[in-house]
Amino acid sequence: MGALLERIIADHRQRRRGSRREGDNHRDFVDVLLDVNEAEEHAGAGGGVPFDNEAIKVMILLMFAAATDTTYTTMVWAMAELINHPHEMRRVQDEIRAAVGVGGDRVTEEHLEKLRYLKHVIKETLRLHAPLPLLLPHETTEDTQLLGYRVPARTRVIVNAWAIARDPATWERADEFVPERFAGDDLTTDYMSAQDFRFVPFGGGRRGCPGVAFAVPSMELALASMLYHFDWELPAGGASKLEMDEMNGLSVRLKATLHLVAKPWSP
């Protein structure tokens, strides 16, 4: 993977040199990262962390592993859980359709604040099926002291978010899909609370996921739209309930391909 990313960066650097001569304005995500790299080189060393090729490769990997793959994986898990829990499916659909109203024809961002149960469904999906069960590793840059322990520089720390979210000492019915648990005032409503670390699908603190404010509304809007416009069921003649076995990859996803029948709904 490292060699592939090095080649991608080298190809972009070469194309950028030709683009400046030919007036080609084609740009993509790698070009944005290279802009930062070149601006830093032009400004000279400032004493901060260098944004070099290694940093660019990390950002590209983060975009694929922690942004794209995780979002659609969470959507699949949410639909699978709702299909296996018809009562919760009806409840969230009723909420969405009531919020959009008789005169509405689609879900918009303005509706999301009214969809409290939908938010509970997504949180419970992330609790049970964190796309990255082991959060992205962090590494200390210098020797430090933490709670009386000496932590040497370059110590790698990996947080098991899956185990935290299924800890029976913290969660009642820890292995069951119960969106209502997030309706309680005693449970965190913040994905990255600095005070409550029972639920950390996006990490937490200064090193938490910087894309959470974009990822969560995107998932809410996409899931709400699917549940508003269609009624969903399993194909006829198949199993009456989905198997929820997991498969590892860039993220932890549903092992079996999710096949559902969508029936258009109209007010």
Q: What's the gyration radius in Å?
A: 22 Å
Q: What is the molecular shape? A: globular
Q: How many DSSP E strands? A: 8
Strand order of the largest sheet: 1-4
Q: Describe the sheet with the most strands.
A: 2 strands, antiparallel
**Low-pLDDT segments, ≥5 res:** none
Helix content: 40-55%
Number of helices: 7
CATH superfamily: Cytochrome P450
Strand content: 5-15%
CATH architecture label: Orthogonal Bundle
Order of helices and strands: HHHHHEEEEHHEEEE
How far apart the termini lie comes to 49 Å
CATH topology: Cytochrome p450
Average pLDDT reading = 86
Entry keywords:
267 residues, mainly alpha, Cytochrome p450, two-stranded antiparallel sheet, 7 helices, 8 strands, Cytochrome P450 71A1-like, membrane, metal-binding
Descriptive report:
The chain has 267 residues and is mainly alpha-helical. The chain has a single domain (52-264), classed as Cytochrome P450 (Cytochrome p450, Orthogonal Bundle), CATH 1.10.630.10. It contains seven helices and eight strands, in the order H-H-H-H-H-E-E-E-E-H-H-E-E-E-E. It has helices spanning 2-22, 29-43, 53-84, 86-100, 116-128, 161-165, 212-229; strands spanning 138-139, 144-146, 149-151, 156-157, 230-233, 246-247, 253-254, 261-264. Strands 1-4 form a two-stranded antiparallel sheet. It is globular.
